């Protein structure tokens, strides 16, 4: 599918119709060069969103985009860079020889930016199509130190495929079936709080990306050993809540706005 999307014919069609109404394209065509029109429309919408959200990805013409929902759930380029800076500070700028596990790989934005400063990144994702897209994009962008695992977060942790990581990152889905949004950590998929005992068997450090609407006091109740809460605002809008946890940390967490 990726090779077909990158063909000259398909790329020319995408370029010619980049300003068209996606809804009208879906009504007008069923397939384009033997590809479902829905996949073509995903590329058109994805490129538009990436222009602002992921400018360095938008400038690379070989990037493949997944369904719109996955792009919307992904971190922006700026938010991903902020997370990298936080982790570098947490690990005292010694990330070059360290391993990070991304338990919710998704579209792969955060993993890509983590790979710029970590020795290796382990990318865990249950959707094999997303893995294919992420792997292709990562290689197109020059990232070759990412290892991919087609697995749920829980199964990966239980398998003990890896016995140690310097830090584990998780960005749980905040949508239930039917596209219903949820905000508390025990309603997300996966349930971060339930996974913490398995996480502590592998790493002493955990970074959780949560909804900006999450109640901080509730988060501190749901999660163990929260060391720092970072509220990320970009262009005047609160975008992410980051919870840094360290195994057996018992003091009062620091709360800061970025």
Number of strands: 10
* Distance between the amino and carboxyl termini: 40 Å
Number of helices: 12
Strand order of the largest sheet: 5-4-3-6-7-9-8-10
Given helix and strand content, the structural type is alpha/beta
Helix content: 40-55%
What order do the helices and strands follow?
HHHEEHHHHEHEHEHEHEHEEE
Biggest sheet architecture: 8 strands, mixed
Folded structure, characterized:
The protein has 258 residues and is α/β, with parallel strands linked by helices. It contains 12 helices and 10 strands. The strands form 2 sheets. The protein has an 8-stranded mixed beta sheet, sandwiched between helices. α7 packs across α8. The longest helix is centred in the N-terminal third of the chain and has 17 residues, at 37-53. The termini are far apart. The mean pLDDT is 93.
Give me some keywords for this one:
258 residues, alpha/beta, eight-stranded mixed β-sheet, two-stranded antiparallel sheet, 40% helix, globular
Question: What does the secondary structure layout of this molecule look like, with pairings?
Answer:
Layout: H1 2-5, H2 8-16, H3 22-28, E1 31-32, E2 35-36, H4 37-53, H5 55-58, H6 68-73, H7 77-90, E3 99-102, H8 109-115, E4 120-124, H9 128-140, E5 146-149, H10 153-159, E6 167-170, H11 192-200, E7 205-210, H12 216-222, E8 226-234, E9 237-246, E10 254-257
Parallel strand pairs: 3-4, 3-6, 4-5, 6-7, 8-10
Antiparallel strand pairs: 1-2, 7-9, 8-9
């Amino acid at each position: 599918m990726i090779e077909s999307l990158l063909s000259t014919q398909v790329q020319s069609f995408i370029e010619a119709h980049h300003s068209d109404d996606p809804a009208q394209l879906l009504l007008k065509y069923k397939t384009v060069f033997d590809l479902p029109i829905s996949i073509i429309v995903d590329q058109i919408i994805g490129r538009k969103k990436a222009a602002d959200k992921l400018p360095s990805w938008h400038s690379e013409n070989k990037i493949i985009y997944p369904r719109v929902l996955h792009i919307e759930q992904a971190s922006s380029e700026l938010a991903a860079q902020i997370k990298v800076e936080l982790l570098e500070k947490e690990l005292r700028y010694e990330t070059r020889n360290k391993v990070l596990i991304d338990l919710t790989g998704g579209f792969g934005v955060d993993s890509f930016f983590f790979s710029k400063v970590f020795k290796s990144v382990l990318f865990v994702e249950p959707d094999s199509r997303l893995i294919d897209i992420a792997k292709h994009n990562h290689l197109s962008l020059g990232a070759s130190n990412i290892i991919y695992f087609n697995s749920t977060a829980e199964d990966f942790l239980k398998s003990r495929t890896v016995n140690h990581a310097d830090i584990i990152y998780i960005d749980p889905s905040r949508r239930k079936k039917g596209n219903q949004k949820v905000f508390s950590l025990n309603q997300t998929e996966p349930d971060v709080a339930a996974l913490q005992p398995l996480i502590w068997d592998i790493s002493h450090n955990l970074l959780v990306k949560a909804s900006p609407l999450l109640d901080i006091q509730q988060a501190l109740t749901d999660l163990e050993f929260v060391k720092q809460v970072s509220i990320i605002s970009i262009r005047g809008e609160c975008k992410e809540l980051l919870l840094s946890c360290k195994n057996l940390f018992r003091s009062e967490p620091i709360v800061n706005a970025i």
